[in-house]
Structures are given as structure tokens and as C-alpha cells.
Amino acid sequence: MGLILSRQWQNELNAIYTPIFRLMAEVVCLCNEILDVDLREYLDTHPIDSIEELREQASICNKCMQCQDLVEGEIYLARVRRQRAAGQF
Asked: Residue 66's Cα: distance from chain center in Å?
């Protein structure tokens, strides 16, 4: 009986916490409160090739420089995804 309750308890916890963990996102920029999932979504729908373009078009980055490496990495990955989708990569 104890083993059945234990498995049931584990299943209920998994049902509760699995969707929560999937929704957790990392903050890319504290100044503008930009989440990584929001940045990826924006970059996947807009052909941004540099952080300067992102600053001009979206006002997402305000030159605080704390997130520059992360943002440039996401821009690169979005460019690779676009190239793969177009069959260029």
C-alpha cells in the first residue's frame, strides 16, 4: 500500500511541476526585464543580424552591456535557425 501511495504522490507532483519547469525562463537583461524565450521568439520572427539592429528596431537593448554576450549569442543562433529553415546550412 505504501508503494502505491508513493507512486501516486510522485505522479501527482510530476503533473504539477513539469509544466512549471517548462515555463521557467532565464532573464537575459535585468535592465529591460527581457526573458530568453521572448528574445528568441522576437529573433525568430525578425531578421536581426546584429545587436545594433536589435537596439534600433526593438529598443530591447539599451547599451548597458551586461547582456551583450548573451544577446549576441542568441542573434547568432537565430541566424543559424533561419539559414537551416531556408536550406542554406
From this structure: 17
